Amino acid sequence: MKTNDVILQTTTKVVFFIIFLFSIHIFFAGHYTPGGGFVGGLLTTGAIVLLLLAFDLKTVQKALPFNFTIMTAIGLLLALGTAAGAIFFNVPFFTHAFDYFTLPLFGETSLHTAIIFDAGVFLVVVGSAITIIQSIGGDS
Amino acid sequence: MNMINLLLFPIIIPFFTAILLLFFKEQVRIQRVLTVIGLSAGIAAALSLVYKVKQDGIQSITLGSWPAPFGITLVSDMLSALLVTTTLIITLIIVIYSFSSIGRERERFFYYPAILFMITGVNGAFTTGDIFNMFVFFEVLLIASYLLIVLGGEKRQLRESIKYILVNVISSAFFVITIAYLYSVVGTLNMADIGDKIASIGQPPILSVIGVLMMLVFGIKAGIFPLYFWMPGSYAAPPVPILALFGALLTKVGVYAIMRIDTLFFVSDLGFTHTILLVLALLTIAAGCIGALAYFDLKQIIIYNILIAIGVILFGVAQMNEPGMQGAIFYLLHDMLIKGALFLLIGIIIYVTGTSNLREMGGLIKTHPSLGWMYLVAAFGLAGIPPLSGFVGKLLIVQGGFEHGRLFSTIVILASSLVVLLSVIRIFVYAFWGEPKVLRPSDRSIYRRMMFPAVLLVALSVAYGVGTEWIYPYISDAAHVLLNPDSYITAVLKE
Could you tell me how far CA A66 lies from the centroid of its own chain? Predict the structure, then answer.
């Protein structure tokens, strides 16, 4: 008998975006409130896992055509690059910089290089977690 | 440009190369070229770091421009600079050896990135000046070594990797618990600051307990007497180049950590902590000697020789006097080189004969004379025959033992050299003398390509022994910092 997942799949299509937006919110909130790259990455992974539960592996791979190993590598490069940027200014490794900018739409915002490092952590967490899930789930 | 970040380069360069390699999973040729370039750049950086430390004294930097005890400090004194350089050189040679011996299937599944990530961890552990950061670097090197030990997925590798991971997870948990105890007593994680604080409160008994716990943790990593049980099985499972990396580098990180904490932290109650270290070192030597004589398996004989060397080094450290400490450092560097060389050579013997059982081989000197003579030179170097590299280190260690008035235990060290010589000459006699056995067909050009890095490493160890006079000032500087922790503390805290 062919099972019919229409309720699960329809709910997933809505809930996925809510979880994803929440993970982005958590990611950006990390500097002043609880959150940051690690939990943000795990929440995004959680959203993708929900897709995997509702649909099958092939469909999700078609919808998100990323190589997650490469995503991990890019994340590592971002993190290392942010930290190593300090070398070019001859200050100790990992010295971050921040300043206030007046952006259109956002107004006065403080931008910190730590966010790039966090983006690296985010990509590494998503990349490695999805790689684990795909390689365990992919065999059967 | 005044490079204040120079001491980070031996850590960052392998790390960066490893990340780049992740983009070229299937292109084995690009991976090989990038690995060699990355390691060569790392060696260049490490050599200039040695030069810089020799010129300007201890280099230290606190990441993120924070003041010293509050940020993570990386410290490069002469000992860690020398260890970092040796690590990178040995890795480069073993990587070249892997080109012709590890096989394409392993190369395609992140073999080179795993090696480079492991080197990142090893160099980081040698350079860090923060006890929790040392834990993190230990995990970096261990997790990469988990991959290397299981890569290939043979039945034996799977079985031994479970043991290896289990033992190391437990010892890592002990490490965290010990750091927690230490933090609750002294309230800081910066190693120089911990040394300073312990010196000012004069090591109450709880700190001696923590000292013994640390010895337990690093003893599992280094394989000292009652804690070496995992090593013979686990190290024999992976292919020879990985075995050579593990044997030359991983246990030595544990030895380095014991050297560092026993000279920087726990120096107020030497009668307790260092007597334990001395007794454990002697028992380690005894266990290693028994194992080295008991087996007819090439790999096992050399693996038990690792134990003997660790015992000898820690015996030198336990003396806490100048010749003992210099000898320990000399012997540590010698042992990294010579163990790498020996593992590469027995790897070639195993490739040529197709077995690691001594009873099934013989007469190799007729067909492979250069291999035979190289092996003999390496064996004499290991035992400490005068012009070769093992001599000066052991001489200084023995001198340190006699100066400390430890007559009996020093004679044990001397006697252990005979056992070492006997165990490796037994390989020579069984494998190279006697009636030639029928060899399985092997490729002569692969044999030559495998010989090249092995000969290079033997030559390096010979140069290390012959050039003692030239190397001695560096060793002396390294021992000076270990015996005068104040210079380390001042360099970090800049008081």
Answer: 13
Both tokens of B129, joined, read 């000046």
Summarize pLDDT for B54-86 with one digit per residue, the tens: 998 899 999 988 888 899 999 999 999 999 999
Task: Using a CB–CB cutoff of 8 Å, tell me whether A132 touches chain B.
Answer: no
The pLDDT of residue A2: 67
Residue B261 has pLDDT above 70, yes or no: yes
Q: Which residues of A touch B22 (CB under 8 A)?
A: 69-70, 72-73, 76
Give A69's contacts in chain B (Cβ within 8 Å): 22, 25
Tokens, residue A73 = 């590598």
Using the beta-carbon criterion (under 8 Å), do A70 and B12 form an inter-chain contact? no
* Phi, psi dihedral angles at B66 (to 5 degrees): -80, 155
- Nearest-neighbour CA in chain A from B124: distance (Å): 14
Quote helix, strand, coil % in chain B, to nearest 5.
80, 5, 15
| Confidence check: pLDDT of A140 > 90 | no
Which of chain B's residues have a Cβ under 8 Å away from the Cβ of A91?
A: 4, 65
- Using alpha carbons only, how large is chain A's radius of gyration in Å? 18
pLDDT category, B203, cuts 50, 70, 90? confident
DSSP assignments along B269-316, one per residue: -HHHHHHHHHHHHHHHHHHHHHHHHH--BHHHHHHHHHHHHHHHHHHH
CA distances from B245 to A53, B97, B158, B239, B450 (A): 42, 11, 19, 10, 15
pLDDT, position A97 = 84
How many residues does this entry show for chain B? Answer: 495
Structure tokens at A5: 């997942």
What are the residue boundaries of the structural domains of chain A, listed by start?
6-138
Model pTM greater than 0.90?
yes
Asked if B64's CB is within 8 angstroms of A92's CB, the reply is yes
B319 pLDDT higher than 60: yes
